[in-house]
Amino acid sequence: MGSLRLSAWFSSAAARGFPPSPSDWRGRERGRPSRCAPSSPASAAPPPSLGRLQVGTEHAWQWDCLGGGLGGGLGGGGGRRGYAKEMEAAVRVVQVACTLCQRVQDSLLLADTGSGSVHSKLDRSPVTVADWGVQATVSWLLSDCFRDENVSIVAEEDDKTLSSSDGTALLESVVAAVNGCLVEAPKYGLRSPEKDLRAHDVLQAIRKCSSTGGPKGRFWVLDPVDGTLGFVRGDQYAIALALIEDGEVVLGVLGCPNYPMKKEWLNYHQRYYRLMSKVAPATSGSWNKGCVMYAHKGCGQAWMQPLVHDFGMLNWHNSREIQVSSVSDPVSATFCEPVEKANSSHSFTAGLAHSVGLRNRPLRVYSMVKYAAIARGDAEIFMKFARSGYREKIWDHAAGVVIIQEAGGVVTDAGGRPLDFSRGVYLEGLDRGIIACSGALLHRRILGAVDASWNSSTL
Question: Which of the residues are catalytic?
Fold first, then answer.
């Protein structure tokens, strides 16, 4: 048996209780047993290693898992080392990144977004202070956490715009956003810099994320703001961080600051949710939206916790297991697809959905929130078939893939093969598209439908 111990190698944060989640919660709170260990009788005290968060003898939280994979478990059985330190660091760092994004998004929604707050990259995709700010913040924090090791990071952004002669004011905004979050790092169990970072320090942190990945060694993969278009529109987006070692994703963390706890709200634009929240405010202190999801390869479990930004100090005790939906009948299944039509074909996925008997309206959400929806049981299928010429990047999928898999789902390309994260920054060798499902039965049906329909496709 392997074990992942989330020990207090950082300075421990003060514990604070979180309120219960809404009544439609899926997972252990609804009595579903863990896949990592046999369930115990309700009247019996849980044994000390049942694949769940427990309090340790030194007031630290430990996460024991009976899962296999990676040498027999999370503790590095079979000669493989564990990733306790990495998992804890990644979750804490993404929590900080969520705070930065929430602050920037709030400022964008209050201001005129046409006044220079949103910029365009060479491919015309939007980029904001949050994209650069999160990348600099994550880079600095990971380097500080693992200062005795060489931290290698693959990330989406570069510093060209910020370093240009026209980027001075923008750079100042990024520096302010970064320092505003780093000064609060102790609240997340992390260390703050001894003094504010200067513009040069921020640029250096961004530049450090220049790894190109590959089949050997270890590197982090970061998408600082996945779904920037949704972000600037006040809608869904995600912060995605994964660790890859020797070509395999070994852990993934998804920060979803606007993810509603009630499934029904995913069908509405986040701006409408904000409006309704003002008309009918939620109960004070209730967990209504926002979460960080995380999982480790081979554990057979995935977890979700509230945002520190909304509820105070980070408390591992409030992490809850998430599981994919048990729906296997296509008539009852919900499928997700990208909002944007530029890089994917809605018409092809609509045809596939009809051919396998899917009747529910598709759930169109920005970013890797689609992966989160499947992992939490709010949807059953995600299909993406890129248009000709588009190449999928590893930071758009790595964290979401491992979280779905450990929550009980299946993710492959359209040929049924695992996604290959060992060939650089792109998912090279991808067979037609990406299919993620809550279970093997739905997955097989989608694969069959793709094979039957592909020759008539105009992709």
Answer: 131, 228
